[in-house]
Amino acid sequence: ALKAVLVDLSGTLHIEDAAVPGAQEALKRLRSASVVVRFVTNTTKESKRDLLERLKKLEFDISEDEIFTSLTAARSLVEQKQVRPMLLVDDRALPDFNGIQTSDPNAVVVGLAPERFHYQILNQAFRLLLDGAPLIAIHKARYYKRKDGLALGPGPFVTALEYATDIKATVVGKPEKTFFLEALRGTGCEPEETVMIGDDCRDDVGGAQNVGMLGILVKTGKYRAGDEEKINPPPYLTCESFPHAVDHILQHLLSTVCESEAT
Amino acid sequence: MAARRALKAVLVDLSGTLHIEDAAVPGAQEALKRLRSASVVVRFVTNTTKESKRDLLERLKKLEFDISEDEIFTSLTAARSLVEQKQVRPMLLVDDRALPDFNGIQTSDPNAVVVGLAPERFHYQILNQAFRLLLDGAPLIAIHKARYYKRKDGLALGPGPFVTALEYATDIKATVVGKPEKTFFLEALRGTGCEPEETVMIGDDCRDDVGGAQNVGMLGILVKTGLVGEKMIPQPSGFEGHLTCQVSQPL
């Protein structure tokens, strides 16, 4: 039986500063079912508080502890490993690491941090890694879109440190398995009892299905025709938008009768 | 195996072969004189990203080696050579001290990227500019891809990680011009009228000097000198059985 639903944010619940039509009501309907809901996203420069504010402005009824980001995943890993990280992250991401000790670091966490990506700081990180510090990457995006054009993402700098030290980073964001497993931590739900709804076929749906969840691909956001053919196995379901996904869940996945997984 | 052709050129590595830091290898100056008495072209070859030919020449003259500037061929020379051949205008991510080796090369409105060891240029804004040039189709030329190097205060990132970063970001491959790349050795012979099969390379680095040279058809002589750590210790002797009787005065 379905116990948990993971929902991607950007492109699925909202597009920039506009909600996907009908999404707020669909979320209310989803909550009327007895499922745990988590909102999941890759980000390296927005703290949970920032995300919450944006969603509240769009009249989504969400609480902060339902939000799970790649920054949360990084913090989680740092706590599990009991390390003190050197944080190469944007200042705006620092609130998500409140309470984590960062003096005398013995780990390196890399997010999107242009103001920290210069030789001296990268060299400090390099030396920590040579001493055995683990390298944690929020994600490895090659580049991203800014107002003034494309700009280097965190991926190239993580790769630079991997090349210099001959070690591999642990990547914590989507589509990594650990991201999805961590999102369920504390919910009491297993991957097999979970559905993930997102607009990115590879990172949202593919990643979730790789850990045993069902994936629903929505045709909003960055979706492009034919995306559903890019992963194997294909998405459990491809549908128009988040409200349609919720309808499907309420109609087909909450039955108390034991259902085999449709593929 | 075909008979070897007559020897016409000798390539000599600098650091570790002719000299160790600021001391000449004992007897090397005289050996060089004897080599010159034979009718061979001599070239001095080295990977460097922050010493111009003038700097290298000065150091060698201080150690009483009789060398002229146009006999020196470095990875910077190789990069310049490639830039000229491709007829591009490079964005030069190189140390200031290396700039003299690019005198006369146009660098405004760049359409190529050259990366050496340039700590003061390895920061986000400049790397982003390079990234955008590469996205526009500019070729990426790497002086070499060393992971790190030794400084007084410890190990420090080399140019390799930054070249790799740009390769990853753009999904293109850099052309590496330094040893042990084939192009380095072929370029070193440019203008000498000599073929690789008529050339011997002498060096202390088995993979970068001897291996690289033999990969293009030269003979390689591995010398048992070279700096490891703080002391000069012998390296294991390699496949040195490639001397021919045409070599008149081995160092």
What is the CATH architecture term of the largest domain in chain A?
A: 3-Layer(aba) Sandwich
Roughly what is the average pLDDT of chain A, rounded to an integer?
Answer: 93
CATH topology of the largest domain in chain A: Rossmann fold
The H-and-E topology of chain A, N to C, reads as EEEHEHEHEEHEEEHEHEHEEH
Number of helices of chain A: 8
What is the strand tally of chain A? 14
Rg calc of chain A: 19 Å
Q: What does the oligomeric state look like here? A: homodimer
Gist of the model:
The first copy, chain A, is an alpha/beta fold. Chain A contains 8 helices and 14 strands.
Explain the overall architecture.
Two copies of one chain form a homodimer. With 263 residues, chain A is an alpha/beta fold. In chain A, the strands form four sheets. Chain A has a six-stranded parallel beta sheet, with helices on both faces. The first copy, chain A, is globular, with a radius of gyration of 19 Å. The first copy, chain A, starts with a strand and ends in a 10-residue tail after the last helix. Chain A has two domains: 4-42 and 175-253, 3-Layer(aba) Sandwich (Rossmann fold), CATH 3.40.50; 72-171, 3-Layer(aba) Sandwich (Rossmann fold). Chain A is 32% helix and 20% strand.
Write the layout of secondary structure elements.
The structure is a homodimer.
Chain A: E1 4-8, E2 14-15, E3 18-19, H1 23-32, E4 36-41, H2 48-57, E5 67-69, H3 70-81, E6 85-88, E7 107-110, H4 119-130, E8 135-137, E9 143-146, E10 149-152, H5 155-165, E11 170-171, H6 177-183, E12 194-198, H7 201-209, E13 214-218, E14 237-239, H8 242-253
Parallel strand pairs in A: 1-4, 1-12, 4-5, 6-7, 7-8, 8-11, 12-13, 13-14
Antiparallel strand pairs in A: 2-3, 9-10
Helix pairs in contact in A: 1-8, 4-5
